[in-house]
Amino acid sequence: MNTISTDIRTVTTPCGDITYTFQHKKVKNINLRVKHDGNVFVSAPKRVPAKAADEFVISRSSMIQQAITSFAARELIKERQKNLSDGKTFILGEEYTIKTMADRREYAEKTDGFIIIHMKDTNDSARKISIYNTWLKAFTEEVFLYVMHDVHSKFIPLGIDFPELKIRSMTARWGSCHTYKKMIVLNRRMIEAPLNCISHVVTHEFCHFIHPDHSAKFYTLLDKMCPTWREDKKLLESLVIL
């Protein structure tokens, strides 16, 4: 019976030190896998020395770090979703505590540090989530429209009419611009991020009414309309993972 040799190794890369588990297996090529818990595994044929595995990890360090960061961020999102049932939520980059209050009327309101849900039966968790989601939907539309009008004011001199707003759940993008429909679609998840992050996405989409592609002219206009868009984009991607 063949045994699989296992070695825990650490290499210094341009992205920092990476510790990984190295194994010789019956495989044809060097294989690399990053698990959801952030652990890195490398398997290789018996003929491949450990030094070659080190070099392979170093060459893939950027990808490995991105995967580790992505998995960690997804776990954070799962924790935030769990926190909703535990009484926590994130709105415009801030953490809020959800509280219930017995009331004949059922609605939600945002105060300093709290989302207060007024409801008849404070023990009805499903109803609590329903009331919260109804409030969040209306609040998200209010905020997005506010940002849309604010950004649009910069584009009025360019002859751009105010477009229709659609809010959707999207897993691959923050927003999209449908020039032929005069419509901007925004990802509802952005309500978790600060206003400047939302504004940069809206500005990006408005720029597409002038330049439908991502040409140099598009980015020149984006730089002019939103000079901080790079920092805003980076912050958005660190706070809200699609």
Computed CA radius of gyration, to the nearest angstrom: 24 Å
By CATH's scheme, which homologous superfamily of the largest domain applies?
Metalloproteases ("zincins"), catalytic domain
Summarize the helix and strand pattern as letters. Answer: EEEEHHEEEEHEEEHHH
Give the amount of beta strand, in percent. 25-35%
Could you please describe the fold and organization of this structure?
The protein is of the alpha/beta class. The protein folds into three domains: 6-56, no CATH class; 82-137, no CATH class; 138-239, Metalloproteases ("zincins"), catalytic domain (Zincin-like, 2-Layer Sandwich), CATH 3.30.2010.10. It contains six helices and eleven strands. The strands form three sheets. Strands 1-2-4-3 form a four-stranded mixed sheet, covered by helices on one side. It has a four-stranded mixed sheet with strand order 5-6-8-7. The protein has a three-stranded mixed sheet with strand order 9-11-10, with helices on one face. Strand 10 (175-178) and strand 11 form a beta hairpin. Helix 3 crosses helix 4 and helix 4 packs across helix 6. The relative contact order is 0.08. The mean pLDDT is 89.
Descriptive key words:
single chain, 242 residues, alpha/beta, Zincin-like, 3 domains, four-stranded mixed beta sheet, 6 helices, 42% helix, 26% strand, flat
SSE blueprint and pairings:
Elements: E1 6-13, E2 16-24, E3 31-34, E4 40-44, H1 50-59, H2 61-86, E5 88-91, E6 94-102, E7 107-111, E8 114-119, H3 125-155, E9 164-168, E10 175-178, E11 183-187, H4 195-207, H5 216-225, H6 229-239
Helix pairs in contact: 3-4, 4-6
